[in-house]
Amino acid sequence: MPAVSKGDGMRGLAVFISDIRNCKSKEAEIKRINKELANIRSKFKGDKALDGYSKKKYVCKLLFIFLLGHDIDFGHMEAVNLLSSNKYTEKQIGYLFISVLVNSNSELIRLINNGIKNDLSSRNPTFMCLALHCIANVGSREMAEAFAGEIPRILVAGDTMDSVKQSAALCLLRLYKTSPDLVLMGEWTSRVVHLLNDQHMGVVTAAISLITCLSQKNPDEFKTCVSLAVSRLSRIVSSASTDLQDYTYYFVPAPWLSCKLLRLLQCYPPPEDGAVKGRLVECLETILNKAQEPPKSKKVQHSNAKNAILFEAIALIIHYDSEPNLLVRACNQLGQFLQHRETNLRYLALESMCTLASSEFSHEAVKTHIETVINALKTERDVSVRQRAADLLYAMCDRSNAKQIVAEMLSYLETADYSIREEMVLKVAILAEKYAVDYSWYVDTILNLIRIAGDYVSEEVWYRVIQIVINRDDVQGYAAKTVFEALQAPACHENMVKVGGYILGEFGNLIAGDPRSSPLVQFNLLHSKFHLCSVPTRALLLSAYIKFINLFPETKSTIQEVLRSDSQIRNSDVELQQRAVEYLKLSSIASTDVLATVLEEMPPFPERESSILAKLKKKKGPGAVSSTEQEDGKREGGELNGGGERGADSTIAASNASTPSPSADLLGLRSSGPVSAAPPSAGSLLVDVFSEAGPAAPAAAVNDDGFLRDLEPPTESSDSLLAEGPGDSDSAPPSVVSEDPAPPMPQSDELLHKFVCKSNGVLFENQLLQIGVKSEYRQNLGRMYLFYGNKTSVQFVSFSTSVTYTGELQSQLNVQTKPVEPLVEGGAQVQQVINIECLTDFSDAPLLNIKFRYGGALQNLTLKLPVTVNKFFQPTEMVSHDFFQRWKQLSQPQQEAQKIFKASHGMDKEVLKGKLLGLGMALLENVDPNPENFVCAGVIQTKAQQVGCLLRLEPNAQAQSGEQMYRLTLRSSKDTVSKRLCDLLAEQF
Amino acid sequence: MIGGLFIYNHKGEVLISRVYRDDIGRNAVDAFRVNVIHARQQVRCPVTNIARTSFFHVKRSNIWLAAATKQNVNAAMVFEFLYKMCDVMTAYFGKLSEDNIKNNFVLIYELLDEILDFGYPQNSETGALKTFITQQGVKSQTKEEQSQITSQVTGQIGWRREGIKYRRNELFLDVMESVNLLMSPQGQVLSAHVSGRVVMKSYLSGMPECKFGMNDKIVIDKQGKGGSSDEAGKSGKQSIAIDDCTFNQCVRLSKFDSERSISFIPPDGEFELMRYRTTKDIILPFRVIPLVREVGRTKLEVKVVIKSNFKPSLLAQKIEVRIPTPLNTSGVQVICMKGKAKYKASENSIVWKIKRMAGMKESQISAEIELLPTNDKKKWARPPISMNFEVPFAPSGLKVRYLKVFESKLNYSDHDVIKWVRYIGRSGIYETRC
């Protein structure tokens, strides 16, 4: 083909493209493309040498076909050939093809990299630029690996052309973004920073993007850029619009560069150097001044450029947050924009003001614009602008204007867009709570909120209002009255019914004196809403009814009638049915005293972070809540319902599922049975821990070895603390409070016996504290986890625990405890790990002493640590023959211990099996000739020796006088062991 | 119940839009265009559900026909209707094309009013329609003629009017079959079936009663029981098993169900009497033997032999063999003994055409394909070699045994009718893997 050198026009390509465009259908297009591909393939066939022009043309066609969405699997080689051409147009097409169609073919990549390398080292600036663009466009890791070292050199070399420097800076930025680990600036850092002084504005603009990105990662290295940036900025700002000829955009000097400089400065704190700072402040002032000048052009580009700089400057001022003068000026400037006719400007002004409002210097200044903002909320046509206005109102709210703002937001809520309603509701609820001066206003506001936007009021909001009403005595009456009135509306929202049911159930008596709201009227009002509500609300209403019975005995018969009706007592919903049945029984059986105790008024809720605030935090959105505000909210919320701990020890009345009672059951264990097989669905911490005990045990045991090896002998210090012997455990009552460890509690032995056959469970529980145990044993080592759960809402201070063991126990056991945190928050749980080593067999249990201060009063508890000798059993399997042989070997009288005792738990075979397995011995089947009997075998592992044990349990269902009796026989190689085990086990069956 | 019917050109512009029910809004037209015609991925399913509206479409050359409905209609009914609609339009103005539709849009709306009423299909018999929907201006008919049309259209035999008279009573019968095959390279039949149609052109006077007989296995076996065993044995060999069949509306189905005899009063002119499908004992007219050899990475040698497998006295026509070539083909050399062969780059295949070929012959083509080495590791999928042809016999083995005409009122008998029977066997999808 003759070389057509008519510039860049490729006729063949143009014809092909117009052919494609003229195709009537997809099929025709595919046919045309197939034909062209076949043509190109025949041209690219190795034997013919193509000139550069046709190569370029065909590669172009391939690229076009690829961009139409067809696969291209050849032509890469030709494209790489084009790279090495000396003609710009051919090189350009080659690079274009490579950057669009590069794949990770190693062989080809090598060739491409070679081509790029050649171009980078050439002196031709256009070639260098092409190569740099290709690297940036591909931006792959391979590229980064190959050229990350090369490009900084080009960037800072003195003899590089400006345009190449520009490209190099941007290319490096791209590589840094894709693989930051490969781009190491190191020695280039200072020279890159000095690019800010470059003569050429384009280079500075490109370099500043790179520097901004780099300095975000390692600000310290690039610290020097601050002063350079400030001086550059001041030069631009102070220059006349004609100074920077090419870089003046509609009379604004270098707007992009200025914006970037201001943004770079936002990465750093205010400069410490006074001169630099002065210069910067001067710059910012100049920018603010310029905004006041009349526009030099009516074109929109002029004002856009000017405002862009202005907004960046304001952002910087807000970032520094240290110049009250500037902040106020910025605020005023933004205030002007609030009334600008350009919607975008209004949006930006509202957004920036949101951040300004959180600054202490400008908060007051922002507040002066409240009328404008409220107006914006009402009249803006664009929803996003209205949203910003709402955000700003939220941000500028404080005690002085809360009432006004909340009222405005409430009235806006009626017409607000659905998309922002939920957020608005949350904001109103938070503001109302945060800045409430009197609680009747708060209650009014929230009830209004539920009335206006009930669907958007989340659970948290109405939980919160109930918490506050319950914690504050002074509003209860008012709340009951308001709720009663609100409920009288013919249609009220379900959330309103919930609040109404709860509050009337608790405080209905406060308004019962008025004949217009007599008990029966209240009840009828509530019940009229009953059938329109969903199941959870109905359940709540049922609870309210039973509370009515307690509050107003005269309503008893009416309510019982309702509960007895088929629609309640035979309701298809289990929860409702159960409540109806239980409440009906409760009301008819229990005496008024009992009823009054059970249905006592709810105790105050513990103080915790407002759940609404937590919810708003989850919702994204600029200016939602800044962290300072959150703290603020916590503090203010605290003083709002801090209403003292009033009778925290009072029993929790009618704890039912739907009541949001946070103190219901912290550990979730109360309902679980005596055996630790609590259902995992209970979802409490402790249960979770248990459920993983199985698989985790071996792994933990392995760790134990290493851990226990460096155990030290028990510390002596703990001994002196023990004043009384552990033997007389029945003596002192638990109420004795002293700094010394209290004697063991009377029930401690009983508690200990609970743990003979199991290793996990609740060791102890009273109104304040719950102690859970989880333990694992392996050979002569054991590890026990104790979980101390604070059931109250008040923190325990100076919480400490100690384990003591005296006398011969010291030579028998080795116990090491880890200290616990001295503070246990209300509702929290702490964990303690105890490591136990069995030196030799033992019969007594170590004592666990717990001391803490609850509300100033010292609490002192002593329990027995549930460690018994059988924990160190290693099960031994053996056949009948072996068993009896060994049985006979241990026939000396002191080796045997026997007991005959009455069965105290019945004689279920499976239960017995379970207990014997829990004991730790191997349960041997088919050994004893009598299938009713149980025999077990095991070895107790101690550090000193191993003690073999055999057990035989003979149940006798019909002994004398028809009572169920057991005969338990234990034989072991050590008499003390037999004795101790026999004693322990006798309590178990 | 069809809610609306739309016809689009290939660009998706609406040519005809007729809405029958209120539940189909105007936006349905756009919905189909946007979601099917202009869809990014080609829509292959003929039924598309868009916003609770079902669209059933067929495509004829560059024309899209789409029926829209919100109800749960019988899809087979809708498609049958759409095909019928195509046939009617073809019968009125020839090939379905954008220009033809634009030129005849008044006629089309008229037809649509007639053949669909509130979305329920009505009489779509071309012959009947042509009596009252006419293309040329006609003088206003007399009262009698009008009432005749009315009674005919609403009467029992809606497809034939009374009082047709021909000087020569003639009758043409075409058995047209298309044979489909997929064969393994070793010559094993993987799947094969014949779908056939019996098309009739009748020029008969009066209201003749016709009876059509063919070598259907069930009929032959039944007759064999009654007749002599010798005859049954002879004809039994040649009977065919029909898997399923459908008939024109004129065929009395009750008679077919009880006696398996096909009797009918034919419409005037051309119509399709029946359609059928067979899968057993198919005569495959051609055998294709491919041989593909890859020589290195840059060359492929292909040799294909075709053998005709029917009576030497018969001639097959319009034979065309398509041999697919790999996607990286850079050059092809072909040598063939008979016919013409050419590499068609736009279709990525070698097309070998033979005008005529007698039975029991064979012919061969060999090609050398040069490949461009690519860096793609994908292997060529080797699509099957496909073939087109036309043979003058029925590959299913169907034979017309008789076609009797009875006309009691007029004075002509079966012998006076001139009958022509023709068999045409065509290729459907006739492929051999290579």
From TrEMBL, chain B:
<feature type="binding site">
    <location>
        <position position="340"/>
    </location>
    <ligand>
        <name>a 1,2-diacyl-sn-glycero-3-phospho-(1D-myo-inositol-3,4,5-trisphosphate)</name>
    </ligand>
</feature>
<feature type="binding site">
    <location>
        <position position="342"/>
    </location>
    <ligand>
        <name>a 1,2-diacyl-sn-glycero-3-phospho-(1D-myo-inositol-3,4,5-trisphosphate)</name>
    </ligand>
</feature>
<keyword id="KW-0653">Protein transport</keyword>
<keyword id="KW-0813">Transport</keyword>
<dbReference type="InterPro" id="IPR028565">
    <property type="entry name" value="MHD"/>
</dbReference>
<dbReference type="InterPro" id="IPR043532">
    <property type="entry name" value="AP2_Mu_N"/>
</dbReference>
<feature type="binding site">
    <location>
        <position position="355"/>
    </location>
    <ligand>
        <name>a 1,2-diacyl-sn-glycero-3-phospho-(1D-myo-inositol-3,4,5-trisphosphate)</name>
    </ligand>
</feature>
<dbReference type="InterPro" id="IPR022775">
    <property type="entry name" value="AP_mu_sigma_su"/>
</dbReference>
<comment type="subunit">
    <text>Adaptor protein complex 2 (AP-2) is a heterotetramer composed of two large adaptins (alpha-type subunit and beta-type subunit), a medium adaptin (mu-type subunit) and a small adaptin (sigma-type subunit).</text>
</comment>
<keyword id="KW-0254">Endocytosis</keyword>
<dbReference type="Pfam" id="PF01217">
    <property type="entry name" value="Clat_adaptor_s"/>
</dbReference>
<dbReference type="InterPro" id="IPR043512">
    <property type="entry name" value="Mu2_C"/>
</dbReference>
<comment type="similarity">
    <text>Belongs to the adaptor complexes medium subunit family.</text>
</comment>
<dbReference type="InterPro" id="IPR036168">
    <property type="entry name" value="AP2_Mu_C_sf"/>
</dbReference>
<protein>
    <recommendedName>
        <fullName>MHD domain-containing protein</fullName>
    </recommendedName>
</protein>
<dbReference type="InterPro" id="IPR050431">
    <property type="entry name" value="Adaptor_comp_med_subunit"/>
</dbReference>
<comment type="function">
    <text>Component of the adaptor complexes which link clathrin to receptors in coated vesicles. Clathrin-associated protein complexes are believed to interact with the cytoplasmic tails of membrane proteins, leading to their selection and concentration. AP50 is a subunit of the plasma membrane adaptor. The complex binds polyphosphoinositide-containing lipids.</text>
</comment>
<dbReference type="GO" id="GO:0006886">
    <property type="term" value="P:intracellular protein transport"/>
</dbReference>
<feature type="binding site">
    <location>
        <position position="344"/>
    </location>
    <ligand>
        <name>a 1,2-diacyl-sn-glycero-3-phospho-(1D-myo-inositol-3,4,5-trisphosphate)</name>
    </ligand>
</feature>
<dbReference type="InterPro" id="IPR018240">
    <property type="entry name" value="Clathrin_mu_CS"/>
</dbReference>
<dbReference type="GO" id="GO:0008289">
    <property type="term" value="F:lipid binding"/>
</dbReference>
<keyword id="KW-1003">Cell membrane</keyword>
<dbReference type="GO" id="GO:0030131">
    <property type="term" value="C:clathrin adaptor complex"/>
</dbReference>
<keyword id="KW-0446">Lipid-binding</keyword>
<dbReference type="GO" id="GO:0006897">
    <property type="term" value="P:endocytosis"/>
</dbReference>
<keyword id="KW-0472">Membrane</keyword>
<dbReference type="GO" id="GO:0005886">
    <property type="term" value="C:plasma membrane"/>
</dbReference>
<dbReference type="InterPro" id="IPR011012">
    <property type="entry name" value="Longin-like_dom_sf"/>
</dbReference>
<dbReference type="Pfam" id="PF00928">
    <property type="entry name" value="Adap_comp_sub"/>
</dbReference>
<feature type="domain" description="MHD">
    <location>
        <begin position="168"/>
        <end position="433"/>
    </location>
</feature>
<dbReference type="GO" id="GO:0005905">
    <property type="term" value="C:clathrin-coated pit"/>
</dbReference>
<dbReference type="GO" id="GO:0016055">
    <property type="term" value="P:Wnt signaling pathway"/>
</dbReference>
<dbReference type="InterPro" id="IPR001392">
    <property type="entry name" value="Clathrin_mu"/>
</dbReference>
<feature type="binding site">
    <location>
        <position position="353"/>
    </location>
    <ligand>
        <name>a 1,2-diacyl-sn-glycero-3-phospho-(1D-myo-inositol-3,4,5-trisphosphate)</name>
    </ligand>
</feature>
<keyword id="KW-0168">Coated pit</keyword>
